[in-house]
Fold this sequence. Notes:
6-stranded parallel beta sheet; Rossmann fold; globular
Amino acid sequence: MLGLLGGTFDPVHVGHLRLAIEVRERLALDEVHLVPAPRPRLRSTPQVDPETRLRLLQAAVTGIAGLGVDGRELAAAGPTRTVDTLVSVREEQGDRPICLIIGADAARRLDQWHDWERLIDLAHLIIARRPGARLPRRGAVAELIAARGDDGADALRQRPAGVIRVCEIPGLEISATAIRESLAAGRAIDYLVPEEVRQMLLNEGLYIRE
């Protein structure tokens, strides 16, 4: 099974990596690919260019078994949409089970995504929920979770797409915003990002205000 974890990764940090590792291990995924977005529609514009964020991601996953980087969205012309990315991955992977990993916050606004109802037909939906995070309680997304939720151990492997699984993961209070603020203020970011990423951020002066 292939997991896909999208985001701006502005910059990538150990919370992103632990999320990918936790989901991979708990669901016995073969691999998880981190998919950087160039210009996300529902989030603020990243402060660092896509190519640099891609390099940081590639450095971050080096040597971590089962983690990889998929840069296809950075090569797309015009705005990128998750549904289009899944169509592209599905064409490559055939009937292999694909798991789209999102957080509880993203799940609560899933109905704002472009063509969101098609996502479940292209991939399983894995909602990674940290302690205290709320899931939608009413509305179309809540109804979809209720209709497609399945706790069967082999449900994800039995078909290529169509199952929603809530995956409880430990909470790590690390944010890209806080890391950017620390860099701008000259504070240490040791152990918040992989060491190679930390060195790249400092050597290249990324997120440091002039």
